[in-house]
Amino acid sequence: MNLTRHLRVDPGSTVDLGAIDPGFHGEHNSEVEARETLCNNLGLMTKLQRQLDADRKHSLLIVLQGIDGAGKDGICWHVINGMDPQGVQVVGFKQPTSEERDHDFLWRAHSHAPARGRVAIFNRSHYEDVLVVRVHKLVSEEVLEPRYDFINNWERLLSVENDTTILKFFLYISKDEQLARFKERLDDPAHQWKISASDYTERHYWNDYIKAFETALTRCSTDYAPWFVIPSNHKWFRDLAVSQIIVDALQDMKLELPKPTVDIQEIHRLYRQEAEAAGTKERH
Ligand code: AMP
Ligand code: MG
Questions:
Q1: How far is the CA of 194 from the centre of ligand 2 (A)?
Q2: Were both Cys, which of 142, 143, 158, 241 would link to 164 (CB 3.0–4.6 Å)?
Q3: What b/e sequence results for 193-223 when a residue is b if at least 16 CB atoms lie within 10 Å of its CB, and e otherwise?
């Protein structure tokens, strides 16, 4: 099954999350079965990201969104782990600071847009300004409404001006799965620090969040910056799907290693001279 095609929100289509199963797990039936493909993807990702860095023509922006407990941090640990940290920047979007509030909502996102050769991961993103802000009516309808077009235009700017490939992942879990994950956090002293009281109060707004996600996914999935709905009840499938889509996108870039800037024959000659002087044999 081609996961990139299957999980992509087709531009112009209307998203109904009720029709998507967050427990979907594709052709593999367990973590053990999926392990080989995941390892393979992570290996390819490492190789391709190094080429992206060397090629310096394209950049990659990965947006992670999802309700609390959906696994945004998990993706950063388990998937992005496959990349060389020198070429990647992970940016967490928290409540805006007072300086950020004094600017337009895209200002803080734009300052973290990836340079050519680099990868940026947004753990939450500019979409918070049409998600939590919409659910809690933090701005008026008049301010909110144009934001979808502003987002599309800004993402197009990155795509056209900076050859940025944009992949947006909505990590979709069920309400029951969220409660089960909250319980795991509660029972595991190593994870209790992640608990916040707002996890529970926000749950009361579940349906409003689902509607806000449906609107954002419907209005902002474009050819140049598509959304993907990632069924995430199974963490192993979530990791597999995200890694597969990233690998496909990197392969589509047709990355090339730059040509050497020196005459390689001449460097061979210089090397042989040095090796002879040092009395070492050339290694094959
Ligand atoms: P976490 O990702 O769990 O550390 O939580 C970050 C919190 O910041 C979440 O509750 C987000 O909804 C909130 N947040 C992020 N961006 C915004 C924003 N633009 N306006 C209001 N709250 C936000
Ligand atoms: Mg959280």
A1: 7
A2: 158
A3: eeeeeebeebbeeeeebbebbbbbbbbbbbe
